[in-house]
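Pipeline run #58 for the internal structure catalog. This entry was flagged by the ingest filter as a single-chain record with no existing model, so it goes straight to prediction. Upstream metadata was stripped on purpose; only the residue string is passed forward. Reviewer on rotation: M.T. Logging verbosity set to normal.
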Amino acid sequence: MPQNKANHDMFSRRVKASIIAVALSSVIIVSVFILTLPLNPLDPDNPDTPDNPEPSVPDLDISEKTNLIPNAGFELGEYSSSGIPESWDYYEGNAEYEWVNDSAQAHTGSKCIRLGNAWNEDRPEDRPSLYSYVTPPAGIGIENRRFLMHMWTRIDNVSAGSEWLVVRYRIGSSTIDYDIFRCQNSTEWSSNDFVLETIPADTTAFRIDLMLDNAPGAVWFDDVFLVELNSTEYEAVSQVGRFSPLNWSGSTPAGTPSDCA
């Protein structure tokens, strides 16, 4: 066999072997990539999948915290079923309203708030609201500060996402932005924890609204508080899902009625 032909055949065999090796490597790489894709991607409605375990729940000592919400448990004020608790106001919208005085219905103490039958297809914007104004403690850089809202709710015949906490950020008498947080949908008293972390610069006050969105049924609210978090507390709390109750320790915040858990 001529030397040139022998060299050509050997080169061809090497090229073919290299092509086969590259092809096999590609198959292996693709196979590994496919096998390493998450088998159970995070489902927001079912976050506790094996690949997405619930984060550990931090301890939060609130014994030295000051509750910025006045009359947090709705216990104070000249009572009547249609009356308004001290330090709160009410926009009736298109709903039923009741200041409940019944320890069997309240989360703690004897009083809570009930909003009901807010269904009105013609005026969905007419949402009833119990609200209170809060002035945050003096300090610089409100946009860099973080606050925790904590409250208790229960419902009867209300679709998920219809019970709201709305925080309006204000300069003077003007609202410059707001956050909407949707509360738990449970017929049992359930805690809700929300972090205020997108506060606009120059905000001077918060308006806290407890609302029932355009819906039939009823929602009860009780034991509301707002505390400021330091950087360590914020780092811990921000890792927890909004429906994951925190491990409270110490007493309730200063300024909170003793019967408010």
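catalog note: The chain has one domain: 60-249.
catalog note: The longest strand covers residues 218-229.
status: ready for reviewer M.T.
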